[in-house]
Amino acid sequence: MPLNKEKRKKYLIEYNTSPNCKEYMREYRLKSRFGINQEEYNKLFEEQNGVCAICGKEEKDISSWTNKPKFLCVDHDHKTGKIRGLLCGRCNTSIGKFEDDVNLLQNAIEYINKNSTKSH
Predict the structure, then answer these.
(1) What domain range is 50 assigned to?
(2) Looking at the 3D structure of the chain, how many domains does it have?
């Protein structure tokens, strides 16, 4: 039988404030979405020196849960599932909007180059 609204709210508060909840959920999401564990994520993070594989910057978006910078996103090929690296939220969203289409990305580069003011 489903919990009523108040009991569900109480349960979620207790569950989400337990000491190991965030770590467990993070491990679960990494494993279920990408097939890796926290140790494998940490290895990628270290190999990239803690920065985005595209822009070379640290993640700047702040988590509402922890008030700390969010984790870098696990970027993967949507056809094969192969992990390509870790990206900041902005770069991850940007390439996602281009649907990993190299031709669209190349067209965007050409467009920017053609229409940008050259500075010397």
Answers:
(1) 5-115
(2) 1
Tell whether the torsion through CA atoms of 87, 89, 95 and 100 is positive or negative: positive
Average pLDDT over residues 25-35: 87
Distance of CA 72 to the CA centre of its chain: 5
Q: Is residue 4 predicted with pLDDT exceeding 80?
A: no
Q: What is the CATH number of the domain that holds 110?
A: 3.40.1800.10
Whether 120 is in a domain gets the answer no
Residue 22: pLDDT above 80? no
Residue 17 within a domain: yes
Q: Residue 37 falls within a domain, yes or no? A: yes
Q: pTM for the whole thing?
A: 0.75
- Go through 25-41 and write b for each residue having 16 or more CB atoms within 10 A of its CB, e for each that does not: eebeebeeebebeeeeb
Q: What is the pLDDT of residue 120?
A: 46
